[in-house]
Amino acid sequence: MPRPPIERAVAGVPRVTLFKPAGVPARELDQLPLAVDELEAIRLVDLEGLSHEQAAAAMGISRQTVGRVLERGRAKVAEALVDGKAILIGGGQYRVEPPQWRCFACQELWTSNEESGLASSCPKCGSPDVGVCWGGGARCGRGRGGGRGRCAQGGSPGHGGPPGHGGPFGRGGPCRGDGPDGRTA
Asked: Is the pTM of this model over 0.85?
């Protein structure tokens, strides 16, 4: 008998649960199911730039499991994009566990009580220089995509937008290469 799957921790349930090609009614499209834990793995690794080890700690599973979940999720997204199918998000083995945040200005730790699960500023000092923690709060970072061309000012190396418009992790700080030694300040 196979071992029962371990529930994966996710930061929240997605608000949007159906993506489809524009101009085609959903009833006319084949639908691919994308589990919530697959979406979370894609979000952590591809959007937030965490390593597989960091994503595994955030989700409470092994690095190898993150790799398998990520591979399944990416394959489904690729198939939907290439073949013009709808993506229906839902199901999977998961539990909602809001992330813990750290302020890099005052070192305050907190769990976001906002409905979105995202933090835009520190509740203690108001600084926008905040980042998510993973692995039970032992390690915290700005999660800006380390070398993947993402920055807190808009999502591209050229800043593409005003300050504070980065992803849900690490809003408002300098992007990679802005520090005195050429790395993130």
From this structure: no
